[in-house]
Amino acid sequence: MVDARGVPGDRGAAGPGEHIPGFPAAEGPDGQKDYLKANTYVGWYKSDHERLISAKRGPSHKWAHAAPDSVLVWAIGNIWKVDAWHTVIDMCQYASDMGMTVRFQEGQNRCLEPYDALGTMRNEAFAAASMGGFEYLLMIDNDVLPSKDTLYRLGQRDEPEVAPYVEEPKDPNQPGRPLRTLHGPFREPYKGIYNVKWHVLSMMLWKVPFIRNCGLDFWQDSIGGDEGYHFAKMYAQTGVYPKVDSEIVLPVAGAPLYPLTVHRAGEYAEVMKLRRAAYDSIPDRRPPYPGNGHVTDDGVYLSFLPDRNAPPPEEPPQGAAPEGMMSMEEVQMMQARVAEGKPLTLEQSRRIIGAAVPAQPQQESVNGSEPANAEEPAPVS
After folding, report:
1. What are the domain boundaries of the chain?
2. Strand ranges (E), the chain
3. Spatial contact of 160 and 240, defined as CB atoms under 8 Å apart
4. Whole-model pTM?
5. Pairing outcome for strands 101-106 and 198-199
6. Does domain 70-279 bear CATH number 2.60.40.10?
7. What is the pLDDT of residues 132-147, one digit of tens each?
8. Using alpha carbons only, what angle is made at residue 330 by residues 326 and 334, rounded to the nearest 5 degrees?
């Protein structure tokens, strides 16, 4: 177990009378008394990592949480576009390496017809994050191509709801012009964080307490219930605008599809035919390049798996002894030394008896002529 009192900076980290950052010490003769009367926060941690994460937040900075910086990454379905799976997995891996607790789940496709139960699927993500005790929920579509640090950077923003700046697909016939505007009102990238009335739902990071404020049945299945409708409802309920972080740019593998728009354009039947075909396909969970060995038996890429294609470890030389044991060559050398009447060195003696005590650091003798514990011949019986 780790020291329950935490680390400096945590309210439970200091002993009596020690000043802790974030808790101003009162001045004057009663300052010590006022400090000791303050409420104390103590945590029991299972690992140094958990202790450091909790102390980094500290009760003076954020409310205590059972799983600080934990996030449920929830994919809406599993019809992955090319390169989407492995970029999402690498993003989760990076966030984990940076100290976040990350869990990933592909949500079940609950649509009878394409798009007719997306609201139910998003509500399921809300419920899973809430009952799972996570601090954050990241909802993603299957066509996102995030950078490794996208999730981690969004988590540092500490917003009730925030989305990256989705990189708009370009019109091949009109270079530089987007096919659609993916948030409104429109802003340029790399202009900081700003309020919007709506943004596309490709990727969104939600705080779970804010989700509970919106309600676990927040999303609706109506095809006409698009982003604008839902974010207007969110603002009406909470007074909070959705936010776009234009410093975090998110490429996507294709332009977003609005069923109501394509229906009005007379293209609905053809689009739905393509979507149904996609539902019958095997999810594309391939690694970033052929030959990448971080895969399961079924070829699913997971960055933390050992590399199947790595060369096997080198075999020890013939006759080599296991680590910690003497080789036959060493034994024969010592036998020959004794047979010649020569004493064994102290190190050789240790090797024979298997002493686990490491050699002590050398210290100079009183007269400074030689180390006090220099190797001396061991007596030979």
Report:
1. 11-61, 70-279
2. 70-75, 101-106, 136-140, 161-167, 170-171, 174-178, 183-184, 193-195, 198-199, 203-207, 243-251
3. yes
4. 0.71
5. unpaired
6. no
7. 999 999 999 999 999 9
8. 120
